[in-house]
Write a structure and sequence with these properties.
Elements: H1 2-30, H2 36-42, H3 48-59, H4 62-67, H5 73-87, E1 116-118, E2 126-127, E3 133-135, H6 136-151, E4 157-160, H7 165-179, H8 181-187, E5 201-204, H9 215-223, E6 229-231, H10 238-241, E7 249-252, H11 255-264, H12 269-281
Parallel strand pairs: 2-4
Antiparallel strand pairs: 1-3, 4-5, 5-7, 6-7
Helix pairs in contact: 1-3, 5-11, 7-8
Length: 283
């Protein structure tokens, strides 16, 4: 019902504009138009951005549409503009933090983030390996978030970060050998389709379901969005993300994108990323 109301709101604004123009045309044929009428017609002038918004939303999956609450299209577009404005400050020589990567949207075997920073032992968070790395902007945000967690008595532990195409290939093949292809597809990304290759994703803790019971995971669920980190594979959305629940896997997308995701897409990262990708590619 929410989806229908929101889309009807958009369609109504389009139809209202069209009806106003039709009525004006009919009036011109039958009787003189009063001076006040053109101003009234101008106030409901066709808006190409709202028309584009409607087309993009109609292209989304049914579950995505159902997640979108009733609201004002102009407010939605204003919030989208804030997200796209923030994107302008991202490194111009690398993929956007909003880049859609999943089982059908890939990067090449030669892709490596331009501004990788090796993670070293520090006072903010624990590293569980000496080979970890992140994009600089993601690591800066991780430090900020980890310091906030520490103030609340929680120390975050980082277990996995950037993985090259070749490393992901080995990881995927390993899980195929352990669990078989069908089960591996639910838990491990094929090379070129992993968020880890973007250098902006972190696996926290023991990388097991039991992490959900820890103070670290509870803190992340409550506060990660405040620092621009989004849970990538929430429970109950395997048909959308392609992966089963991973309570430990968070992706850095920035604070404004997290707000947009929570306000308009039910807090589901995949819905928002698919929308932004569709918006950019819609003529």
């Amino acid at each position: 019902m929410k989806r229908q109301i929101f889309l009807i709101t958009i369609l109504f604004s389009m139809c209202f504009s069209g009806c106003a123009k039709s009525k004006a045309a009919a009036a011109q044929k039958t009787e003189p138009v009063e001076e006040a009428q053109p101003a009234a017609i101008e106030s409901v002038k066709y808006d190409p951005k709202i028309e584009k918004l409607n087309r993009v939303l109609m292209s989304m999956t049914d579950r995505c549409k159902e997640a979108i609450p009733n609201g004002d299209p102009a407010e939605f577009l204003a919030d989208l503009e804030k997200v796209l404005e923030v994107e302008k400050a991202f490194p111009a020589d690398d993929l956007s933090l909003y880049f859609l990567i999943d089982k059908t949207h890939k990067v090449g075997s030669d892709y490596e983030p331009k501004h990788l920073r090796k993670l070293v032992a520090n006072d903010d968070y624990i590293i569980n390996k000496t080979t970890l790395a992140l994009r600089e902007d993601a690591d800066d945000a991780l430090h900020e978030m980890a310091r906030a967690a520490k103030k609340d008595g929680v120390t975050l532990d980082v277990s996995s970060t950037y993985r090259s195409y070749q490393t992901q290939e080995c990881t995927f093949n390993y899980w195929v050998s352990v669990d078989g292809l069908e089960e591996a597809e639910r838990e491990s990304a094929r090379p070129g389709t992993s968020q880890h290759q973007l250098g902006a994703a972190v696996d926290f803790g023991n990388i097991e379901d039991s992490y959900a019971l820890t103070d670290g995971c509870k803190w992340l669920n409550a506060h990660a969005n405040e620092y621009g980190w989004s849970l990538s594979f929430p429970q109950g959305y395997e048909d959308i993300t392609g992966y089963r629940w991973e309570c430990w896997h968070f992706r850095y997308i920035g604070v404004e994108a997290c707000r947009f995701q929570n306000k308009w897409f039910g807090g589901i990262q995949q819905f928002m990323m698919e929308f932004i990708d569709a918006w950019k590619n819609m003529e």
